[in-house]
Amino acid sequence: MRFLVAIKDTSEESKNILQIAVQIAKGFSANLSVIFCGQKSRAIIEGQVALTRLSLSEWNIYHPGIEVLRWAFETINGFGVFSDNVLGFDPAFFSENLGRLRLILPDKSGSYVRLLLREGDLVSELHKETQVRSYNIAIIGNPENKKKIHQYAQFLNTSVFIIKNFNPTWNYRILLCVDDSEATKRAVIFAAIISKQFDAPIHAITVSKTKRFGQNYRDASRWAEKYLHRKGIPYHVSLLTGNPVNTILREAALDHIIVMGKSNNNELIKFISGSKPIHTAQKSQTPILLVKS
Amino acid sequence: MLNDFIRASLLWIYQKKWLLLIVLFGVVAYWLPYPDSISVRGYRTLILSVMVIALIITEPVPLPAVAIFIAVLEVSFRIAPAGEVAKSFMSDSVFFIMGSLMMAVAIVHQGLDTRLALGLIRLTGNNINRIVFGFVGISALLSSFVGEHTVVAMMLPVGMTLIRFSPSHRPIPNMTALLLFAIAFGSRVGSVGTPSGGARNAIMVEYLRNSTTDGTTLSYLHWLIMAYPMVILGIISTTLLLKMAFKPEYDNLDTAIRKLKIQVAHKGRIKGKEILTIVIFFIIFLCWLTLNERIGMGIIAIGGAFLYMATGVIDWKEISKNTNWGIILLFAGAISLGVQMRDAGTATWIGEHIIAATGPLTDRYESIRYLVDIFLTTTFANIMSSAGTVAVLGPVTLHMGGNPLYMALTTAISSSFGYFTVFAAPACMIIYSSGLVKASDFLKAGWRLGIASVLSLMILYKFYWPMAIVLTNFK
Does residue A84 surpass a pLDDT of 80? Predict the structure, then answer.
């Protein structure tokens, strides 16, 4: 599997994102790619900026994005990810590839950590990255506004894990949202792996707007229950009634990681009016993983 | 499958929303009834100009595509026949932009920045006040001849290395901002000193030559005489005002200077190629001073690029890799549009409307005309860079009445007042993206420098330029 982790800077939030990404990647035995999207200069001065950057690199002053990735390397190294034969971070080893700068480093598990540098709008650049290389999960920080969450959820053709207000000292539980959508089974599998990594119990909920639960909902809930039972994960299952988004948010409170399937509705309808997962992600105050079917 | 297609289409719309809006504007404006006060050709040129400015600011397509867009629409809108459009794409100022960009690559490639650093340290010592004055002064003096982008590429490494070597036991945000802005703004104020200080100056010389019927033009020497006092005033005011905005945490930088000396010492004695680079540039400078009117600045600039390649200072591969050819194409297109704006009467129409908007004030106070020019140019320069501003705004300001020579100089000089945003100049972009200065620092320093620059320019306009014209017997 391949995970793409986007970091904004060298802040505590970015450190938390890297920590959660490393922990989950271990569970999935996934290759990790850390991406930093720097601010793009105006095209009209791009050439002159490039010339100055060239001159700066002669003085060992590199693109600020390289420095952020150096920090990311050191942070990940602190989690004991890299194999012993990785000597250190050398900006000279970055190579230009498919419109971005890339550095590949081996990790202890035998897979690789990629450090990627792009410039431009984060949504567009992450989309480009997922086009040139397929990823299973894109892990991103809390975007500056709700509109961006909508764009990530809609335009990134991969599962999206939005890390909101993550506190590494808390004991998180998993809130698994089960319904009759195509992505539910995959969401259950993902939740089970994450649960093992975080040693967190799962609360699997199925929410119906009315008191009557359709057969599909009951089947999905039963399947999730069986799967979790088989995997030996501590769980409990609830069938709840109410507005799905509000109910999920109420159950999640601040100490759950929400895992739910991405909607398979028509993209145009999603673009105009959103979807349950998008609205939940927009309003959620905790990390949320939207799983693509 | 259908959903994937819809998603891809929606993403395209999200990324190209400005392009769609601009095209929509163009289509609607094209079919709207034309105002009586402007010709059909002039109105279509106006539509094209608005679209081009919007495309440069919002960047939904690569800039070379904007140049192509200009050529295609100039012919499609029947603004000019294809042959004429093709001709208007190439001029001496396009040669100048091409030559100066190639020369910049050659000069930066030689690593003269270490020599510059050593020279600067010898001059200033380790006192912070003298270092700031040295940074502003050297950046300004050099950029007035070799161009802002070349100086920034050579000076910023020196400044950033000094910051890196500074004592780090307590934060030094003010000193960091002071040193970096000294280079960024120093090279800005210097770039107006001569026509070779920036592409915008060369473009303005070209516009002035084409706009006036009495053949008013500005030689290299004339420009230098008229504009250089602005550089001197700029060096003094920038040094003083930056120190007011950012009070340094230390009085001297002895540790940093010592480390910098060690870093640059390993370069050894000056090499033959470095001497050759300086000699060739000196020859080019002399040619600009003496032959500019006879053979044109652009030809001299590309002659310089030829000399650098012929003498082996730099090879073509390096020049080709590091020169932004797209920007040359964009300026060629923008200048072509400027020519059409003049010929179709669009420039006059816009200029008259802008001045009419100021009401009777302009009739009573001639200075208002120039203040309006400064305001417009400064605003655009902070949004879309100096050269881009002059390329699209130059023809208009030259038709806002008043003395065309004064207007040309006012536009070119005020296009360097890009103190307020990170987008105005490459140096601003780099120091901001490095995270060493904040966006608010630009405003903190910018408003002081902005006011000082406008005042300096108005003093020049009111007192110095009339005197200089009389004394130099300028025609």
Answer: no
What residues of A are in contact with residue B383 (Cβ under 8 Å)? Answer: none
Count interface pairs A-B at CB distance under 8 A.
116
pLDDT in tens, B304-345: 999 999 999 999 999 999 999 999 999 999 999 998 998 999
| C-alpha to C-alpha distances, B419 to A48, A173, B174, B182, B340, nearest whole angstrom | 17, 51, 17, 12, 31
Domains of chain A: 2-141 (3.40.50.620), 173-291 (3.40.50.12370)
Q: Which residue of chain A comes nearest to B435, CA vs CA?
A: A64
Confidence of residue B213 (pLDDT cuts 50, 70, 90): low
- DSSP string of B143-183, one letter each residue: HHHH-HHHHHHHHHHHHHHHHHHS--SS--HHHHHHHHHHH
Find the farthest-apart pair of alpha carbons in chain B and give their distance in angstroms, rounded: 76
Q: CB distance B385–A123 less than 8 Å?
A: no
Q: Using CA atoms, how far apart are residues B102 and B323, in angstroms rounded to an integer?
A: 6
| Nearest-neighbour CA in chain A from B360: distance (Å) | 38
pLDDT tens digits along B251-296: 888 888 888 888 888 777 888 899 999 999 999 999 999 998 889 8
Interface test with A, best of B14, B55, B118 (most A CBs within 10 A): B14
Query: Would you tell me the crossing angle of helices B40-58 and B346-357 to the nearest 10 degrees?
Result: 80
B432 min Cα distance to partner chain A (Å): 10
pLDDT > 70? residue B214:
no
Q: What is the pLDDT of residues B86-110, one digit of tens each?
A: 999 999 999 999 999 999 999 998 8
Q: Is the pLDDT of residue A231 over 80?
A: yes
* Among B328, B347, B356, residue whose Cα is nearest residue B411: B347
The end-to-end CA distance of chain A, in Å, is 15
